[in-house]
Amino acid sequence: MGVEAEEFGASVDGRRIFVTGADGLVGSWLTSRLITLGAEVTILRREQEPISALRFNGAAAECEVVAGDLMDSTLLEAEFAARNIDTVLHLGAQATVGPANLSPRETFESNVAGSWNVLEAARLSDVSGVVVASSDTAYGPSAVLPYTEAMALEASHPYDASKAAADIIARSYWSTYGLPVVVTRMANLYGGGDRNRSRLVPETAAAIIAGRAPVIRSDGSPERDFLYVSDAVDAYLAIIDLLDAGLGAGQAFNAGSGIPRKAIEIVETMCRVAGVDLVADLRGSGVPEGEIDRHWIDSAKLRGLCGWEPKVQLEDGLALTLDWYREHPEVLAD
Fold first, then answer.
1. pLDDT over 60 at 3, yes or no
2. Cβ contacts of residue 20 below 8 Å, gap of 6+?
3. Measured between alpha carbons, how far is 218 from 211 in angstroms, rounded to an integer?
4. 164 phi and psi, to 5 degrees?
5. Residues 55/61/62/66 CA torsion (nearest 10 deg)
6. How far is C-alpha 206 from the chain's CA centre?
């Protein structure tokens, strides 16, 4: 086994870490954990502080904030150098399928050009490690499941293609320049703080709180792999540990539960956990346009190297998520 699994991220105490996408679902929880572990965290923020978990968990006040955009390569290079950044966690992206289909140019600029700007700034600043968030959707539709890291990336829609392109570019920085880069390909992530009501779990939470029928943008049959946000944070910390141990550079790692769940199952489970009797409002046939019908992943590679595996079962994770939204209903406001 490459590293011990008892406490992932123990080595980040005092480390200077730059996080993009820190106001997103995973970014907010990861940033909070990094601060708890003693890291000196700088975050990139494009606009005024949004309503996110980063605000409610108190971590926002503990971060250094750089106002700017992923497209500003000069800013990134200057900040990495001036702050002597050691580790970069690149989670910033346009992360929604619908807008990606409507505006592919903006998606490619953010997810592809934005990623190479981060990577180039990291190369020029000689940082010791970069972790880039790709996605399990980069694999594209496949008759062979679960996804493993050995499979080719065959994305067929704008969002998926943007993640696959950034994934390949990121790994090229290891083989060409020796920049220690790792790519994460994670399952559908859920937890308190996701503001995107087009996603299944936030929509279902909003519906339960409002006492209305949860909307499913399909016939309920598409299958996904769901991973609770704290397990995703553990995976990121485990990958930092791997880089510290001289392992994993230039590679991609899956992280997920490995269990396919139908959309209707998620809604029914969340309603059962909440103790409410609501019937889903099905608004589609089959899979929504631009999405993959069935996908889930094998995390054996990461588990074998460091012992990472999901700790939070689906029902527990959905209960924790619903509790979080009940405490912070403004996050789900229209």
1. no
2. 27, 43, 44, 70, 88, 89, 90, 91, 92, 118
3. 21
4. -65, -40
5. 90
6. 21
Look up the pTM and report it.
Answer: 0.95
Is 147 an annotated catalytic residue?
Answer: no
| Residue 227 confidence (pLDDT) | 98
State percent of the chain over pLDDT 70. 98
Confirm if 129 and 240 have CB atoms less than 8 A apart.
Answer: yes
Six-digit token string for 215: 């909307």
The amino acid at 268: E
When pLDDT is cut at 50, 70 and 90, the band that residue 265 belongs to is: very high
Residue found under tokens 């559908």: 188
Pairing of strands 260-262, 223-228: antiparallel
**By C-alpha distance, which of 218, 198, 183, 226 is closest to 318?**
226
155-175 pLDDT tens trace: 999 999 999 999 999 999 999
Pick the catalytic residue from 139, 159, 190, 236.
159
Terminus-to-terminus CA distance in the chain, angstroms?
47
d(CA 147, CA 163): 15
Inter-helix orientation angle 25-36/229-244, to 10°: 60
Neighbours of 49 (CB within 10 A): 11
Greatest mean pLDDT range, 3-17, 37-51, 178-192: 178-192
- Helix, strand, coil shares of the chain, percent, nearest 5, are 45, 15, 40
Torsion of CA 270, 272, 277, 280, to 10 degrees: 40
The pLDDT of residue 284 is above 60: yes
Residues 214-260: pLDDT tens digits? 999 999 999 999 999 999 999 999 999 999 999 999 999 999 999 99
Q: Give all domains of the chain, ordered by start, each with its CATH number.
A: 13-190+226-255 (3.40.50.720), 200-224+259-293+311-328 (3.90.25.10)
- pLDDT at position 6, please? 53
49, 55 contact by CB (below 8 A): yes
The number of beta carbons lying within 10 Å of the beta carbon of residue 175 is 11
If one counts every other C-beta atom within 10 angstroms of the C-beta of residue 329, the result is 12
